[in-house]
Amino acid sequence: MIRMYGFWRSSAAFRVRIALNLKRLAFQEQMIDIDAGEQYSPAYRALNPQAALPTVIFEDGTALTQSLAILEYLDETHPEPALLPADASGRARVRSLALLWAADHHPLIVPRVRAYLAKALAQDEASRMAWVRHWLREGLTIGETRLAGDAHTGSYAHGNAPSIADLCLMSHAIAARVFKVDFSDLPTTTRIVETCLARDEFARALPMRQPGAPAQ
Known about the structure:
Elements: E1 2-6, H1 11-22, E2 27-31, H2 42-47, E3 55-57, E4 63-65, H3 67-77, H4 88-105, H5 111-119, H6 125-148, H7 164-178, H8 187-197, H9 200-203
Parallel strand pairs: 1-2
Antiparallel strand pairs: 1-3, 3-4
Helix pairs in contact: 1-3, 1-7, 4-6, 4-7, 6-7, 7-8
């Protein structure tokens, strides 16, 4: 069985969890408590020297880190349902959208960045929360402009089936909701998020539904 090292509130683990559900792949997730610093243990660093989440170990022993690399590997090794379009331009568009959220904005709000703001730059809690909300909102606003203005946007971010772009949008949008960022004025984004949430594969993967998540 596939093994994943994740954490209930890890946005990157959330993306991979959705993909595994969509592809109907059985997996076990071991929670690495990043609040307690478990990612820095020698045992976990031996798996992932970056001390980041997730790490996924496949049945054949292949161990991968970085969520986007894991998603593409899953799509190549378990091609149904496809998470990338068949055409080259479509694949490029999906990757571009995915990188907008997962590479340009998500890295700015992760715990190690917030810890640096607090410890090295002496930013108080209010300042750190303003920082996080700014980058969450900016990612969604830019995404809205791209999604709303492109005929390739359908029921989902690209066409009428979920793609890697939707997984990255969802991880960003759900984080925005956790941090109380209102994006109800972004109609295309809101519609796609609600379309995804109506699917069991997305709903089961939600951070607050994972072991260790606080009671709502």
